């Protein structure tokens, strides 16, 4: 095999995958955290919004240095796994479902697309946090998993 030719082909192939046109993310402020929320309006339609919470400096684990945090009560934590393509039939038929309870969904691996009843669709992946507050009688949202299984942690 001609390694020089193979290396050149690899560089050309990888050049097509460049993210150079995507601006770098701005530095994060450790005193604030933002996440996406699905909420319901009085007409029972669901929508997305960005929520930002202020975090307070806490000295919770001495002798470790203080860090920023904000607590919230939780009654249940569950891990969920979704097969590749899960929800595709619902999206095709536009079958929306309300959240079973107000909860946080923390994406651990894989990709999931969520569409609100107003037609907006967003992608979520590892590290993303989604708060779903679109409980019944809201029309809800629909979720679709990408080409590989998706894993989440759900906190209520």
Can you describe what's shown?
This protein is mainly beta. It has a single domain (26-155), classed as Jelly Rolls, CATH 2.60.120.10. Helices cover 12% and strands 39% of the residues. It has two helices and eleven strands. The protein has helices at 3-15, 88-93, and strands spanning 32-40, 46-54, 56-58, 67-69, 77-82, 103-109, 112-116, 121-124, 129-132, 141-145, 150-155. The strands form three sheets. Strands 2-1-9-6-11-5 form a six-stranded mixed sheet, with no helix packed on it. A hairpin with an 8-residue loop joins strand 3 and strand 4 (67-69).
Write the layout of secondary structure elements.
Blueprint: H1 3-15, E1 32-40, E2 46-54, E3 56-58, E4 67-69, E5 77-82, H2 88-93, E6 103-109, E7 112-116, E8 121-124, E9 129-132, E10 141-145, E11 150-155
Parallel strand pairs: 1-9
Antiparallel strand pairs: 1-2, 3-4, 5-11, 6-9, 6-11, 7-8, 7-10
| Helix/strand order | HEEEEEHEEEEEE
Helix content: 10-25%
Tell me the domain tally: 1
Estimate the strand proportion: 35-45%
**Total DSSP helices:** 2
pLDDT averaged over residues: 87
Radius of gyration: 20 Å
The CATH superfamily name is Jelly Rolls
Write the CATH architecture name: Sandwich
Given helix and strand content, the structural type is mainly beta
Number of strands: 11
Principal-axes shape call: globular
Strand order of the largest sheet: 2-1-9-6-11-5
- Tell me, what is the CATH class? Mainly Beta
CATH-assigned fold name: Jelly Rolls
C-alpha end-to-end distance = 56 Å
The biggest beta sheet reads: 6 strands, mixed
Low-confidence stretches: 1-21
